[in-house]
Amino acid sequence: MAGNTFGEAFRITTFGESHGTAIGVIIDGCPAGLILDLDFVQAELDRRKPGQSKITTQRKESDTAQILSGIFEGKSTGTPISFLIPNEDQRSKDYDHNVGPFRPSHADYTYQAKYGIRDHRGGGRSSARETAARVAAGAVAKLFLKQVAGITINAYVSAVGKMKVEKPYTELDLSSAENNILRCADPEKAEEMIAYIDGVRKAGDTVGGILTCVAQKVPVGLGEPVFDKLHADLGKAMLSINAVHGFEYGSGFEGATLLGSEHNDLFETDFSTRTNNSGGIQGGISNGEDIYFKVAFKPVATIMKGQDTVDKDGNKVELHGKGRHDPCVVPRAVPIVEAMAALVLADHYLRNKNAKI
Amino acid sequence: MAGNTFGEAFRITTFGESHGTAIGVIIDGCPAGLILDLDFVQAELDRRKPGQSKITTQRKESDTAQILSGIFEGKSTGTPISFLIPNEDQRSKDYDHNVGPFRPSHADYTYQAKYGIRDHRGGGRSSARETAARVAAGAVAKLFLKQVAGITINAYVSAVGKMKVEKPYTELDLSSAENNILRCADPEKAEEMIAYIDGVRKAGDTVGGILTCVAQKVPVGLGEPVFDKLHADLGKAMLSINAVHGFEYGSGFEGATLLGSEHNDLFETDFSTRTNNSGGIQGGISNGEDIYFKVAFKPVATIMKGQDTVDKDGNKVELHGKGRHDPCVVPRAVPIVEAMAALVLADHYLRNKNAKI
Amino acid sequence: MAGNTFGEAFRITTFGESHGTAIGVIIDGCPAGLILDLDFVQAELDRRKPGQSKITTQRKESDTAQILSGIFEGKSTGTPISFLIPNEDQRSKDYDHNVGPFRPSHADYTYQAKYGIRDHRGGGRSSARETAARVAAGAVAKLFLKQVAGITINAYVSAVGKMKVEKPYTELDLSSAENNILRCADPEKAEEMIAYIDGVRKAGDTVGGILTCVAQKVPVGLGEPVFDKLHADLGKAMLSINAVHGFEYGSGFEGATLLGSEHNDLFETDFSTRTNNSGGIQGGISNGEDIYFKVAFKPVATIMKGQDTVDKDGNKVELHGKGRHDPCVVPRAVPIVEAMAALVLADHYLRNKNAKI
Amino acid sequence: MAGNTFGEAFRITTFGESHGTAIGVIIDGCPAGLILDLDFVQAELDRRKPGQSKITTQRKESDTAQILSGIFEGKSTGTPISFLIPNEDQRSKDYDHNVGPFRPSHADYTYQAKYGIRDHRGGGRSSARETAARVAAGAVAKLFLKQVAGITINAYVSAVGKMKVEKPYTELDLSSAENNILRCADPEKAEEMIAYIDGVRKAGDTVGGILTCVAQKVPVGLGEPVFDKLHADLGKAMLSINAVHGFEYGSGFEGATLLGSEHNDLFETDFSTRTNNSGGIQGGISNGEDIYFKVAFKPVATIMKGQDTVDKDGNKVELHGKGRHDPCVVPRAVPIVEAMAALVLADHYLRNKNAKI
């Protein structure tokens, strides 16, 4: 009801605020017998953590996950797996100037109105810090998908501002995304985009971008046909990530411009399809082709430029960003998008076991 | 788990196949005391029913909803409200040619693979006929939102193929959409689009399109901040509709191209915002501005042109569409999109009652 | 939230009031491929229907279930299975005397207070008529359990008023319960009890009783270890049946009087246990032994004797029962208890598939 | 699905094993604005902790709860409230003798069979240690119920072995239960029972017992009428506590022996009832009278006497209990029963807000 839980069969619940003691997550429903590679979990967190490069926030947090339960002799036991990530370097004073003003396009006003009380030290629960808990849980989901079915999930930056990777994912080496600080799978574009973001940062501004995500070796049959279509759950997962304003899969918005005779994916005799406008999902159910989708992120709301705003009594005030924020959220969003995709796929993998007798 | 239920506090469960006895819906969680205007429910179903115009399927079904429970002396009683919509005019023989072939970009193959059994008379459960049940339930949600808070929801066709309504919704008379068979709120564009669809239909083809939906007078505070953000639930709702390939709200994909200084919505002293790139939602919670979003529909998969495909044993066969299908799904999708939006808002309206003591 | 749904993986939602058009149920999550023996479903409903004998209500309803969806060529398809049971012979006038008075120990007052509106024609949603929908769904769960694992479930009357079957279930022929109108597995006791109930009926009174239920051939591993212990879900299922005031399993309340050395069930080398005080469940998980439990039903609240009560304005009135009610609910409760047990076991059977990789 | 979550609107998820790093709980859905008295939370944990007296286990754990999130300036913020309780004094070697043998009437065998892996250091997740997390969450629920409605919940020991408190709760001073180490509200009986338990302990044995619990000042209207009846959820809550074998409310099993004319609770003109066989609940909904129920606990399975058992390969072995276990679970169960009752009532208090417009 209060919305801090995601998934049904492979289910996570997260807790914690940006400036409290710790954040964390409980994974309920991970089957017993999974080899829990905790180094991998930490490596995933490291991909998300702040302070990685000049185009991410300079805030330093080690984001070290402690496992508290659900493991015995290196394997999952079928009981809840929980991770705790202590908060460090909170520098609440960076946020003291925020006690009064409602920051534009942040959640300050809506939280205050909804709850009548607000932890004004940073974003509290609305901070993207909460996504570290998702990444830890998503790492376990990735391990699960890999161990039971060889499924892989790779996201990369495909647009920053008005700059786009023109090639489709099929013409890119997805693994190359980790070779640059932007996590863009097109090395040449990456350089241009990084330079652009650096300029935006120096101007005290921020910019939006787009991620593309691809899941491969997904078996046929994942997804429930009516409300819990596989792409509907992927869409919700992505839209639940801070700053996301759009989601499309397969042919996406472009597909709306096509004719049926152009769009239909014809079957081969092995039930693969010649084209993949369906994005690997037909009728809400995976069909064995690659699943791919795009996620649009708005520009980060905290900018270093002065902005007019109001305080909680409606008085006009001018706001000057301080703190240490990301000029562009997309490089750090890559592991988050992958994590949420992994959680959706793990959930539907388990749910699909009951499709037939 | 099997995904035929949507919502938490205002919750619906649908049942029924296109060629079975009936379809229907149970609404659980509608508060007692709502005036249940059954004529309005039927009027909403009439907006979705087939056979309305030359640009929709010529199949004729009256789609008459019978209320079975949850009403006493014209009001809701707090018990489950259920509607039954008998199937008529099923013409199973129109579909006999489908016993063998898997129709391209339909759910035939994935259902067969997932369940090992398939009702091959039309789409079965994957048929868009299921959405009639959603429209009936959505009509009750609309009545609820109107009676408790004056909330209104209006969708209209904003693109067909490559043709687009260029004006933003704020410059259109939304109520005018019902004046043309396309349900486009731009009368001039409507005529062009209708002519285009008619040509596509005559060519035996189909085409995609986009809907824009606007919810007004939504109070501040709806939406839960982490996984069940208001726009995440709207996104899932829309993506669960047949043929939807994309969802964006507020600035959407375009927002990803902007700078923070361009995108941020500055507050006025009454907490309204000068711009509304946030689409009426900040941090997942409604902020009192208009909520607006777009939904992309792929072209209908059933075309009257011959297509290569395979049967369930992988043998090549040629498929020739017969039946009576829509050349473009968007006009009939308008009440469906509104219904799903109403269900999400009703659900979050109830959930928000527990935000504070 | 509004509580008309039961189960997670094998999930039912019921609807309908005693004096509305129909009642019914949707089963969501029944795997595809189950042979749906509709004659069996009807036979189960016939065991519950009114008018079976002199010791049940004389109201006559055929309780004919129509299947509306989820079946194709005799098998389940994986989509929602729904049953509709039209109401007949409602004789609303039998209840006209109830418009004003709150019937003692009925739900009239609490419904009025909770919802502010009440369908005063009989019990509305609180009527035991709702359990017919459970029996139809439970029959499908029984078919499922039988077809996948050979599981059988048998309940019988083990006490009426102060009269008890002294023998444990292990010394009775459970199938013999269907040979008498009381559904008591002890033929001699049955005759005495029937005579007693008949006397109670003639005196215009009612009496309570106890059912014992036994599930056999349940595989090891069903039940989730913390909140959703198998016996906790069985307990909730039973306590959700009208008029139930108590539940115990295995050694039950008597077990609380024993020493650990008396109560512990020692293992044999095949992991069976010498005794079964655990009632087939250890740590909330089935252990392969028989599962058995008892369910206590209070006397039916509607009596033919005059009773003092008040109307909705708090004025004193005298109430004289008319209508046609059961002198003792237990014979008709047998199929209801079995149905709810089957629903719990089917749910946990499916959930257990994800215990380990 | 995996059953580590309880409640819908006021929802808890627990994690942790007896011999892992820590146990804990997340509370999701507690409204903002609650004054979080952390001393009270700790005091409740102290009532449950081991080592309190000669009739409880001599194991010493401080059971100190750390709050990690959901609090700001002493009040709840509407975000998840989480507590961490580190494990101390685990003495795994006390349990080393358990690596092989399946302890009779414990969950060793069923866990091994269900999960294929087992944390054999004590009970792991099946240990009653998990209930500390419930007590912490229940303390918050108690604060909530007190602050919003003045509701109080008191449990006490009403039977140990064959010894019973004969007086009904209405003739006892419930607050006196805290005056003796047994938590029995009848001081004279308490002494006898304590002496008896001490004898059982010295004999290396254990004994069962019964708790009575009373909730007062519960407003009319809590509980959902069909599956989520208030007493059904209370029953499930109690049956989910380790070692519970039975639950009854109001007249309970005794009620099954009565006539309707004896059992019915007649209304007064203020809608109170002359008697309270209904236990404060009619049709699953609270009616404003006291809610009372009983919970039966079997004897603790770990005894100090030798027992025959088998190891995981089915070989016969003799087991000699060591460790430090409770001779009778009931005194420490008092705060657990109260906590679970509080969680159910808080959940239904929130859910009831949506009963009518």
Which key features would you list for this structure?
homotetramer, 357 residues, alpha+beta, Chorismate synthase, AroC fold, 5-stranded antiparallel sheet, 8 helices, 16 strands, Chorismate_synthase_CS (chains A, B, C, D)
User: How confident overall, as mean pLDDT of chain A?
Assistant: 94
* Lateral arrangement of strands in the main beta sheet of chain A: 1-2-3-7-4
Number of domains of chain A: 1
Radius of gyration of chain A: 21 Å
Q: What is the quaternary state of this protein?
A: homotetramer
The outline of chain A comes out as: globular
Helix content of chain A: 25-40%
The biggest chain-chain interface is: A-B, 111 and 111 residues
Stretches of chain A where pLDDT is under 50 for at least 5 consecutive residues are none
Catalytic activity (chains A, B, C, D): 5-O-(1-carboxyvinyl)-3-phosphoshikimate = chorismate + phosphate
GO molecular function, one term (chains A, B, C, D): FMN binding
Cofactor (chains A, B, C, D): FMNH2
Protein name (chains A, B, C, D): Chorismate synthase
